[in-house]
Amino acid sequence: MNHILSSLALLGLLSTQAAAQTGKRSDYPIQAVSFTKVQLADNFWLPRLKTNTEVTIPASFQRCEATNRVKNFEMAAARQGKFATIFPFDDTDIYKTIEGASYSLRLYPDEKLDAYMDALIKKVAAAQEPDGYLYTARTIDPAHPHDWAGPERWVKERELSHELYNSGHLYEAAVAHYEATGKKTLLNIALKNADLVCATFGPGKRAVAPGHEIVEMGLVKLYRVTGKPEYLSTAKFFLDQRGRYAGYDPKSPDAWRNGSYWQDHKPVVDQKEAEGHAVRAEYLYSAMADVAALTGDQQLLAAVDSIWQNMVTRKLYVTGGTGAVPGGERFGANYELPNTTAYNETCASVANVYWNQRMFQLHGEAKYVDILEKVLYNGLISGVGLDGKSFFYSNAMQIRNSASFPQTEPQRAGWFDCSCCPTNLARLMPSLPGYVYAQSGRDVYANLFISGTTELKVGNQPVRITQHNNYPWQGDLKFTMSPAAATEFNLLVRLPGWARNEAMPSDLYRFAMPSTEKISITINGKPVQYTTRKGYAVLARQWRKNDLVEVKLPMEVRQVVANPRVHDDQGKVALQRGPVVYCAEWADNHGRAGNLIVPAATTFTTRYQPEQLNGIMQLQATVPAVQLDAANTSISTTRQTLTAIPYYAWANRGKGEMTVWFPQQLTDVELISRQSKEATVGK
Ligand code: FUB
Ligand code: ZN
User: Fold this and answer.
1) 444 in Cβ contact with 491 (< 8 Å)
2) For the chain, which residues make up each domain, given as ranges?
3) Ligand 2 centre distance from Cα of residue 677 (Å)
4) Would the CB of 283 count as within 6 Å of ligand 1?
5) Which intervals hold domain Non-reducing end beta-L-arabinofuranosidase-like GH127 C-terminal (predicted)?
6) Are 373 and 381 in contact (CB under 8 A)?
7) H or E element: which one contains 522?
8) Which pTM was predicted?
9) What pLDDT shows up at residue 15?
């Protein structure tokens, strides 16, 4: 069996090498327009990116210094001392912050930051061993490595060491730094490490299914920069190692602990469902898409398609959060999407953005960007406070509480012992310009509706596209097309699922009522008939300077209902307007949120509140609210104003109740729940 498997692996590897060696390599049919070619000028994202640059990144570097993460590198360089942080993957917080700071330098050039990074990169270089190995948890004192690291290099890679995880983040950071600054300092460190990894792992060499995926994505990025086939073939080799672990017993009641937690329960091509630790999983699925695109591997493609389908039909929160189960930070069973205990690690949202972008690039379907957008505007940015320096590691869907049983959690924190999420946000946010447009020859895709300008080339013709809008608060989108000379091409404008009566590209969620408004598109003021392709309006014409495309997206407040198999959401609705999912928080609703009922016929008013929560579109309606008397023995309803805020903005005003899902009838109200009483008593 093992013999057959390794022959198959070798075949896969050879085809990978062949693909890599032929001058015309296969790749994603659609390429993103690089972040270096898109300038944002909007009121929603730009202030967030500014905060990321001015607050998050400096705070992150400062915390890397203050918590001894930087010191670990200094000690590794000196080959003496004692590893001074908790986890062997703490090195990655530095890499991720460098990655974010690199993207951010394109947006906001900053000589001081650039120089600081140069100095930090020198420390990283000094910590690298002569053969390329870079892992402070061992190099500081190889005779006494971190407990998770194992006595020798790589021996605990599958379980705990994170050696290849550290490498993967190093590669991602190095490519961003190189692309943003043109400097090869970090890239050279990464290449030296990757050469060691490729020399160590492969057919006839060492084999492992990397314990925490990301090295695969990182190697693919290095392959794109260098064209070196070993980087791609080693990425594929790592994918192919999954499902071979001898210690996995599928019959054990705790089988996930040894198998699916690591996506190591089956060969990747046989995996059909989103399983295990969500961040690991979604980095793996991103790499599967990358390798499928670069090698044309149809089995890999079929597997990642099927896994995506499973996530979107059964395992995705309405906010785009993934990884429902706290124990193992993992995907739950089908339809297991509890609200109060929702884990939804912020890093999983980051990973989901990466994955959906790749799925879009593979297939050119709007539904992938619909999910990406859902994650961006909801479950991702809920992970960072409006101050830019307080974070959620996990993103709850409901805080159940009462005056008599106050909960202390959750509140945002500045940093965590395991601080993967803050630094992951720090790197994702400033890369956002790279998600706005994409291109495939004469097809130019407008995926995100963020004001700003891009300069691209169609054929040899420079084309500038400028978006002016006030998204996500208003659905009036304007695109000014400015080719240097009249040029024929297709502008594909994404018609978001939510604007086409589709709450989700599956039956996991649906809108309770169809929208009465329709999308309309005009060019230079005249309505146009357009064809649609895979969820895009195809605007095909010879574009001339200053052609103006106007798209109107319906922006009613919609009630969303979940598939009846999602237990916690039965009899409840969520609120959505445009891509933004709402919640009710204690601060706006007389100290409570769990007592509010939203009957089907509820109508909402909307008002932009510039002073609130950095500017939000607020929703209000008059609804019944359940009241209990002081003795908790009698119950009544009163009518009161329900005020809803975007989910992403919750937990910026202290702690208290919050809910995304609202009961429609009295029978579905969770009264002062026994559960919350028990949980409090049990603490
Ligand atoms: O293992 C590294 C990171 O720590 C994971 O991505 C997070 O889920 C946290 O467990
Ligand atoms: Zn995290």
Assistant:
1) yes
2) 41-241, 437-494+518-552, 557-677
3) 29
4) no
5) 557-663
6) no
7) strand 520-523
8) 0.94
9) 43
Given this model, what pLDDT does residue 671 score?
63
Residue 212 CA: nearest ligand 1 atom is 1
Ligand nearest to the CA of 425: 2
Model confidence over 305-340: pLDDT tens digits? 999 999 999 999 999 999 999 999 999 999 999 999
What is the model's pLDDT at position 444?
98
CA distance 319 to 429: 18
Catalytic residue among 157, 163, 273, 329: 329
- pLDDT tens-digit map of 51-102: 999 999 999 999 999 999 999 999 999 999 999 999 999 999 999 999 999 9
According to DSSP, the β-strands at 443-446 and 487-494 are: parallel
Q: What pLDDT is attached to residue 98?
A: 98
Ligand 1 atom 7: residue of nearest CA: 420
The ranges of the chain with pLDDT < 70 are 1-25, 401-410, 671-683
**Nearest ligand, measured from the Cα of 164:** 1
**What's the length of the chain?**
683
Cβ-contact 563, 507 below 8 angstroms: yes
Q: Is the CB of 279 under 6 A from ligand 1?
A: yes
Closest CA to ligand 1's atom 6: 279
Residue 420 catalytic? yes
Structural tokens at position 74: 């200094």
Instruction: Measure 87 CA to ligand 1 centroid, in angstroms.
Output: 10
Find out whether 175 and 112 touch, Cβ atoms under 8 Å: no
How far, in Å, from the CA of 86 to the mean position of ligand 2?
15
CB 140, CB 80: distance < 8 Å: yes
Residues 6 or more apart in contact with residue 624 via CB below 8 angstroms: 596, 597, 599, 637, 638, 639, 666
Q: How far is the CA of 533 from the centre of ligand 2 (A)?
A: 36
Distance CA 62, CA 73 (A): 15
Q: Which of 64, 420, 421, 583 is catalytic?
A: 420
Are 234 and 18 in contact by the 8 Å Cβ rule? The answer is no
DSSP string, 25-74: ----SSEEPPGGGEEE--SSHHHHHHHIIIIIHHHHHHHHHHTTHHHHHH
| CB of residue 91 inside a 6 A radius of ligand 1 | no
pLDDT of residue 256: 87
Q: What is the pLDDT of residue 669?
A: 84
Task: Kindly state if the Cβ of 89 falls inside 6 Å of ligand 1.
Answer: yes
